[in-house]
């Protein structure tokens, strides 16, 4: 049984006489122990989707099953009890500004009726797990963004959740802090066996820690599967867009360059670990006696495996181009046309 | 006899009525909050962006609050006389003033409370909901606690306003410094005495203001 199962979920917002379809017929399942990424551009509906997983937003249609239990059939009280097992962290941390770290972490435990002394003890342990023992008495305003998110994570873990939902949890953080928070999440997933769902607009986050991913575009789930598969063969337009956009994010690129890469006879090649030994591109140029233009080359860490990525501009000659593509395919490279 | 003379009796009067004024201000603000605080909470909670939106309840309280607030205090005092008489048996004196002050301060306080609670970050409320908090928990442990500083500032402003109202009430049958200023200062032409009542009211105002702001600062951990 899946830890989270979403069936035919739709959500429509009614604004006066305007109907907005935020999500349309979403189906996905998250297995126990997964780090499941949900990625999309802003406004794609991913934040609404994650709020449907704990029914902070009630879907207009469809079902959400947590451990086989249907949230739609629960009353408010049952839902609140269910939410205690589904923790959530946020882009803006959402800590209580008038309470210090320890009291913030105690908060969910006190809601659940745990005795204060016991809650304090557990809060101290959690603060140690997230590496912030020395900040026990600090108020959120005295903490950096990364430290606030660590306190928020400790607070999320306070009630031993089975699932942790992360809503753009690293979007307000700089790259280094993002990295350390992601490492912490991975550690939590591995050591405590907590299933994690991550909402993000950054492909880098997905690559770094997720094993599965769903891509959301305009409220539709356009593609889902293993991260390594989707990175190598993105089928949907949205997936390609996200992978490409993120590649450009690693080096400063002008808008004109992006346009150039997006149009014309371009192919994107992905090298897996073993294909990087042979100098494929150099050999191809020698064989055909025709230069190709390397528009982008990059190495990325996808789920701990180094993957090379390259965007080539091939000659305009159709026949020659097909021959070159065949040449590359014969050498076991993943390639696809980039033509938006 | 010099009309401006400060006799020992007048000094004595100033002394006892200063305490009477403090008593009236504090009691009316206190009872004002007994009514205004829950009212403000209900207004905030039932508003369309609140945690338990309810159009009907919100509209009813909204209209009542607005009507009460738009009646000038001095007129409210007169209108309330029969009610006050029914409630406490007389329509003059410091107790009667307190009744009128409470009724006029409560809607003012409820608006203050409503807007203080409005300042609480919606994200924090959502976080509490995601932890399985019910509305009562959110009201008492999130809204009131997060808005603490702003609520104290509001109470301080209210105290200041109520001091002014007390003096006004004093002049039409209430007790305290306002009544003294009118009877012994204005009507007998004792300008020195009148001056003293002003000085004392200003000092009272400053003390309330200073203490209130100090407490507000102490409780503020937002920055």
Please supply descriptive tags for the structure shown above.
heterodimer; A: 340 residues; alpha/beta; 6-stranded mixed β-sheet; 4-stranded antiparallel β-sheet; 12 helices; 29% strand; globular; B: 223 residues; mainly alpha; 9 helices; 81% helix; elongated
Short description:
With 340 residues, chain A is α/β, with parallel strands linked by helices.
Write a structural description.
The complex is a heterodimer of chains A (about 350) and B (about 220). By secondary structure, chain A is of the alpha/beta class. Chain A is built from 12 helices and 14 strands. Chain A has helices at about 45-55, 75-85, 100-110, 115-130, 145-155, 175-190, 205-210, 225-230, 235-250, 255-260, 280-290, 320-330; strands at about 5-15, 20-30, 35-40, 60-65, 70, 85-90, 165, 195-200, 210-215, 220-225, 265-270, 295-300, 305-315, 335-340. In chain A, strands 6-7-8-3-9-10 form a 6-stranded mixed sheet, with helices on both faces. A 4-stranded antiparallel sheet of chain A has the order 2-1-4-5, with helices on one face. Chain A has a 4-stranded antiparallel sheet with strand order 12-13-11-14, sandwiched between helices. In chain A, α3 (about 100-110) packs across α4 (about 115-130) and α4 crosses α5 (about 145-155). The radius of gyration of chain A is 23 Å and the shape is globular. Mean pLDDT of chain A is about 85; it is low at about 250-255. Chain B is mainly alpha-helical. Chain B is about 80% helix and about 0% strand. Chain B contains 9 helices and no strands. In chain B, α7 (about 150-170) packs parallel to α8. The longest helix of chain B is centred in the N-terminal third of the chain and has 39 residues, at about 10-45. Chains A and B meet through α2, β6 and α3 of A and α5 and α6 of B.
């Amino acid at each position: 049984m899946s830890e989270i199962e979403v069936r035919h979920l739709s959500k429509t917002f009614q604004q006066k006489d305007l109907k907005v379809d935020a999500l349309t017929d979403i189906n996905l399942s998250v297995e126990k122990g997964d780090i499941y990424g949900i990625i999309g551009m802003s406004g794609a509906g991913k934040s609404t989707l994650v709020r449907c997983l704990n029914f902070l937003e009630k879907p207009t249609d469809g079902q959400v099953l947590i451990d086989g239990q249907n949230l739609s059939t629960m009353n408010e009280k049952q839902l609140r009890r269910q939410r205690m097992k589904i923790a959530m962290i946020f882009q803006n941390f959402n800590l209580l500004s008038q309470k210090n770290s320890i009291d913030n972490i105690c908060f969910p435990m006190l809601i659940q009726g745990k005795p204060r002394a016991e809650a304090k003890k557990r809060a101290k342990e959690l603060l140690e797990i997230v590496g912030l023992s020395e900040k026990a008495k600090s108020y959120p305003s005295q903490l950096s963004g990364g430290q606030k998110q660590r306190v928020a994570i400790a607070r999320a873990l306070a009630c031993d959740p089975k699932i942790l939902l992360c809503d753009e949890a690293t979007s307000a953080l700089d790259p280094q802090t993002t990295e350390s928070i992601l490492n912490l999440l991975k550690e939590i997933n591995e050591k405590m066996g907590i299933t994690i769902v991550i909402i993000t607009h950054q492909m880098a986050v997905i690559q770094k820690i997720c094993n599965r991913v769903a891509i959301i575009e305009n409220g539709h789930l356009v593609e889902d599967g293993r991260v390594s598969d989707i990175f190598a063969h993105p089928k949907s337009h949205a997936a390609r867009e996200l992978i490409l956009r993120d590649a450009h994010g690693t080096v400063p690129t002008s808008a004109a360059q992006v346009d150039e890469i997006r149009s014309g006879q371009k192919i994107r090649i992905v090298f897996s670990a073993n294909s990087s030994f042979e100098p494929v591109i150099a050999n191809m140029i020698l064989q055909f006696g025709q230069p190709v233009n390397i528009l982008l080359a990059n190495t990325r860490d996808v789920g701990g495996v180094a993957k090379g990525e390259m965007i080539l501009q091939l000659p305009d000659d159709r026949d020659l181009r097909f021959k070159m593509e065949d040449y590359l395919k014969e050498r076991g490279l993943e390639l696809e046309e980039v033509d938006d | 006899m010099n009309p401006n003379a400060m006799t020992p009796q007048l000094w004595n009067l100033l002394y006892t009525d200063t305490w009477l004024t403090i008593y009236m201000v504090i009691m009316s603000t206190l009872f004002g909050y007994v009514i205004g605080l829950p009212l403000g909470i209900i207004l905030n909670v039932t508003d369309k962006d609140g945690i338990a939106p309810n159009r009907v309840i919100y509209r009813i309280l909204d209209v009542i609050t607005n009507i009460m607030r738009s009646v000038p205090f001095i007129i409210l005092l007169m209108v309330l006389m029969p009610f006050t008489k029914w409630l406490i048996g007389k329509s003059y004196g410091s107790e009667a003033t307190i009744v009128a002050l409470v009724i006029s301060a409560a809607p003012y306080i409820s608006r203050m409370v409503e807007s203080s609670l409005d300042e609480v970050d919606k994200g924090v409320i959502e976080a509490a909901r995601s932890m399985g908090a019910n509305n009562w928990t959110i009201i008492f442990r999130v809204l009131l606690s997060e808005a603490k500083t702003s609520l104290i500032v509001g109470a301080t402003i209210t105290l200041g306003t109520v001091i002014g109202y007390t003096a006004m009430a004093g002049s039409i049958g209430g007790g305290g410094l306002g009544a003294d200023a009118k009877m012994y200062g204005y009507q007998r032409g004792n300008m020195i005495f009148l001056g003293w009542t002003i000085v004392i009211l200003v000092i009272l105002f400053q003390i309330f203001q200073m203490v209130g702001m100090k407490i507000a600062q102490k409780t503020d951990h937002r920055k």
